[in-house]
Specification:
The protein is α+β, with helices and mostly antiparallel strands. The protein is about 35% helix and about 30% strand. The strands form 3 sheets. A 7-stranded mixed sheet has the order 3-1-2-4-7-6-5, with helices on one face. α1 crosses α2 and α3 packs across α11. The N and C termini lie far apart (about 50 Å).
Length: about 350
């Protein structure tokens, strides 16, 4: 593994909250993936980082930080294996050592470890990293917290394709004074886009449509085992000018699947339930981090403190906002459903 002084194998990212992530890797694929995800906040290295990540084929065994770690956690997802070690969870700098092979495992480093740790660091700065879609409506924004597969991405893409601004389909940064900021992360576009949203699929560059068709064939012949997404920025999908840099949060609409035949709601949600639901969604997103910290005595205290900080921020921000739930039916082509969600939320209908 490279030493921290090897600048050719090091990248530093400074997020809107001021949280700093520093990545060290001797693998070009790791650097290129994280840089493509967070490149908009790439910065010159300066001072200590909040999160220091060493990633590579021998990041744990060859690192000069290895003596800081009690043990490495063995992770597995389908046919992919990795090892990860985390230290300094309660310190100013949290250090992560990560070993694994293949493009898919790099995504796991980001999703399972980097982003949950960023959530903890954001809270220390008075910001919450919320798992939700966020659409801009003039200088205000509407938050759509939901788990995976409910329609957040389709809703955001259709809103952006109609000429309006968005802030994200997966994460958004919520400040203590009620502003929403985009989190720099590419969208995940899957091979079923042509079926679920053919109008958006038709807007993609021809090369991306071809790649999605190939991904669909791979998924079919692997019996769904290899469902690899394309990762694209909102500019690459619908063109430039669609990312809203800042907005004032004006309403929250929870999206939840139901077995009915049509859209149901909106139904008011009490503040305490709204806060609990957002925190439950966020905890689910961080569920892969906790096993890697099992047996570490400081882990429970750090997570408990983060939960208190997050709950306090959410209560203060959401306490004066309209909070609703919309029940969303499971349909093959969600275009009409998404347009109806836009209408009932006070947004103009997407195309």
């Amino acid at each position: 593994m490279p030493r921290s002084s090897d600048s050719s194998n090091q990248r530093t990212y400074v997020f809107p909250s001021g949280v700093t992530l520093r990545l060290h890797s001797d693998q070009r694929g790791v650097i290129s993936h994280i840089n493509a995800e967070y490149g908009s906040v790439l910065a010159e290295a300066s001072g200590d980082a909040d999160i220091d990540v060493y990633a590579g084929r021998s990041a744990i065994s060859s690192s000069h930080y290895a003596n800081e770690f009690e043990r490495a956690f063995e992770g597995r997802h389908k046919t992919v294996n990795w090892r990860v070690a985390v230290s300094g969870l309660e310190a100013e700098t949290t250090r992560v050592l990560f070993e694994g092979r293949g493009q898919l495992v790099i995504s796991f480093l980001q999703t399972f470890y980097i982003e949950p740790l960023l959530r903890l660091k954001f809270l220390k700065r008075g910001h919450a990293l919320v798992h939700a879609a966020c659409l801009a409506n003039g200088d205000s924004s509407i938050l759509f917290p939901a788990g995976s597969g409910v329609g957040k991405s389709t809703l955001m893409l259709r809103h952006a394709a109609s000429g309006k601004q968005v802030q994200g389909d997966n994460y958004v940064i919520l400040t203590s004074d009620g502003r929403t900021l985009p989190f720099p992360r590419r969208l995940r576009i899957y091979s079923d886009l042509a079926a679920v949203s053919p109008d958006i699929f038709g807007r993609l560059p021809s090369a991306e449509r071809w790649r999605l068709r190939v991904a669909g064939l791979i998924r079919r012949f692997s019996l769904g085992y290899a469902n690899l997404p394309r990762r694209l920025t909102i500019d690459e999908i619908v063109g430039p000018g669609r990312l809203c840099p800042e907005a004032n949060l004006s309403a929250v609409y929870f999206l939840r699947r139901h077995s009915g035949g049509g859209l149901a709601g909106p139904t008011p949600v009490p503040l305490d339930e709204a806060v609990a639901r957002i925190q439950a969604i966020n905890r689910e997103e961080a569920s892969r981090l906790e096993p890697a910290l099992a047996g570490r005595p400081e882990a429970k205290a750090v997570f408990d403190e983060a939960g208190c900080l997050e709950r306090s921020l959410l209560e203060n921000v959401l306490g004066h906002l309209p909070l609703f739930e919309i029940l969303v039916p499971r349909v093959r082509n969600p275009s009409a459903v998404v347009s109806e969600i836009s209408r009932v939320c006070g947004l103009e209908s997407a195309i």
